[in-house]
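Subject: Sanity check before I submit

Could someone independently write out the structure tokens for this chain? I want to compare against mine line by line before I put it in a report. The sequence has 59 residues.
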Amino acid sequence: MAKENQTKKVCIIGAGAAGCACAWLLSQHSDKYQVELWEKGHVAGGVASSHKIDQNGLD
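---
Independent answer below. Compare away.
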């Protein structure tokens, strides 16, 4: 068991919206958590994407 004053190691699998949010939140408590964020893809963001549309807002 970890002692009270030791940091806990946390590995987050997946850099989608939830994984990034979780990693950011835990990183704000670096005195308590040592965080690693792993992503199999080339970029973070999960299935989130953006699409360009024309000036009138129509596809």
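---
OP: Matches mine. For the report I'm noting this point. Residues 17-27 form the longest helix (11 residues).
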